[in-house]
Design a protein that fits this description.
The protein has about 280 residues and is α+β, with helices and mostly antiparallel strands. About 25% of the residues lie in helices and about 35% in strands. The protein has a 12-stranded mixed β-sheet. A two-stranded antiparallel sheet has the order 4-5.
């Protein structure tokens, strides 16, 4: 009887763990931000949030698809074959032209954020290094303005503000969806955040929203992440981006071809977190 009880106890724990890792909501956001490569322009990417009452996962689906392929040598070779077939034009006489305007799977966003009610874990490529760090869940302090409301996708939303890592954020959340997460690192309100914006052109806006039972998969294997200090890693990233062409040319033993002879400086205005100065 004791073995029987122990078996079902272990089964219950296992099933509870699986349930914790399954989302109840899938939210797709557009993420607008300044484009470092083209000063003055705003770039827009698509990001996904999977969330339940205790956990969330923030990521880009195309990046995760590419990471899943690259987790095995066979998959990595297959991805390269697809990209070469789409982008590389073989010219008569042996020359080649690369045209990335044609559609093919490509990893353009490295960021993954996993959050629970005690901390969040960030995985990103900073200063050309696969980096990871954690921070407390309770770091954001919100000021609610219950008199400022708006309708977003049929949900009544309340405005709230917070100062976070160098920027003041204004968000709209809905208590009708009692999930205390939102886009990017924004969290801790009594409802899902559907819209968020701050100075400098950074903005998250909900595009699609639905019920879900999708599993919040961990990172695919094959990549080792170095534990870093957040502020130091962001400062190192600023230096790397301001000298990227020169540093990569030196690493691979090539000549740095600079436009107008000068590399553009990666200013704090390009960083969503600018408290590392």
């Amino acid at each position: 009887m004791k073995r029987f009880i122990a078996f079902f106890y272990c089964l219950a724990v296992f099933l509870a763990a699986i349930a914790q890792d399954r989302a109840t909501i899938t939210a797709v956001y557009s993420y607008s931000h300044p484009a470092f490569e083209n000063a003055g322009e705003i770039k827009t990417d698509e990001m996904t949030l999977l969330a339940n009452n205790t956990r969330s996962k923030w990521f880009n689906r195309m990046s995760e698809y590419c990471d899943s392929l690259c987790s095995t040598p066979e998959g990595k070779n297959k991805l390269q074959e697809i990209q070469i077939a789409a982008w590389v034009i073989f010219e008569p006489g042996g020359g080649i032209t690369v045209d990335k305007s044609k559609p093919a799977p490509s990893k353009d966003i490295d960021e993954y954020i996993f959050t629970n009610l005690s901390e969040l874990s960030v995985y990103d490529k900073l200063a050309n290094t696969a980096s990871t760090y954690t921070e407390p869940y309770s770091e954001q302090e919100w000021n609610l303005d219950e008199g400022s409301t708006t309708d977003i996708m049929g949900y009544n939303c309340i405005m709230a503000t917070t100062d976070y890592h160098g920027r003041k954020w204004k968000v709209w959340f809905t208590p009708e969806l009692p999930v205390s997460f939102g886009p990017w690192k924004l969290r801790g309100l009594p409802g899902l955040i559907l819209k968020a914006e701050t100075d400098g052109g950074f903005k998250f806006e909900i595009k699609d929203l639905g019920r879900s039972d999708e599993q919040m998969l961990p990172l695919y294997p094959g990549t080792n992440y170095e534990k870093v200090d957040r502020k130091k890693a962001l400062a190192d990233h600023k230096y790397f981006m301001s000298h990227r062409t020169t540093l990569l040319a030196a690493e691979y033993g090539a000549n740095a071809n600079l436009k107008d002879g000068v590399e553009p400086e990666y200013l704090p205005e390009f960083a969503i977190e600018c408290d590392f100065q």
